[in-house]
Amino acid sequence: MTNKHPSSFIYKSKSKLLFYALILLLFSYAQNAYAQCTDPAGVAANMRYDETDQRIEYCDGTDWVDSSSETNASAALTIEGSVFDTATLDDASNVYVVGNYAYVTAENDNALTVVDISTPTAPTIVGSVSSIRLGFATGVFVIGNYAYVTSDIFEMLTVVDISTPTAPTIVGHVSSTQLDGANDVFVVGNYAYVAASISDALTVVDISTPTAPTIVGSVSSSTQLDQPKDVFVVGNYAYVTAESDDALTVVDVDITGGSTALSSGPCTKAGEMRYNSTNNVLEFCDGTQYNDMGVRGSGFGGCTGITPTPSASALRYNTATNIYEFCDGSGWVTVE
Is the pLDDT of residue 308 over 60? Predict the structure, then answer.
């Protein structure tokens, strides 16, 4: 049968040939241009796991490259803003940040300076306090409405009221040779732990009364705490760096002396609570002595099993069953 449209047939055949030729050309180009990563072979953007170096790598068209290269990591670091002031930030030494404010110690200004950092591109000084009690101010720790600042050359820990950031005010201080060269401070609860580099000491200060901080303990060592620079406290232990000893020293800061000290003795901080590990009960301070948490007065029974016998509604932790119990006036009942 005669083909009625020979030209059309020839056109379609040429189009198909051109199409296949183009595919082959592109494939060949891709192989030549990108198949340059070897051992193993790969093309650009391929990824692999290098079992020898234990890392993810990608092919950049020439070599296998670590996907976590430093050029990628550092590219995002950018300086956003700064604030300069020789009158309040001269020889800025340490900083503590809470919320929208940074609290900076300035050694040469004998100052604690408050900087508003709510706009990172434009930090602004909003307040500052300078005093001999902040002489060569070094460390700073902020908790609640107070900043606790160490004064290196004046053997001092100073308490600053920062409840009004625009007008920080010194409200208390304590000075002692046990704080000579006070360099850093860490606060937990009612206590401030101060690293004193000249006295080679870690000194504990009771700050429960901010206007009258009091030293309650100290440990010194020229072989394990020579020039302590930094301190961090977790639980009953303080971790202190000793610069001249090339050491990290661990200090037991349980100033109560353990359960024996807890089980006796007066108290002065009304409302303070403690766990008596000797009697396994919670106690509170009435301003004179520690009492169990039970309701006191006539008409209430007690629970036996521990001494002294606690009153009704007292709480205890039963170490045998690992559960909390309370006294219902006649026996111990599981807290559910």
Answer: no
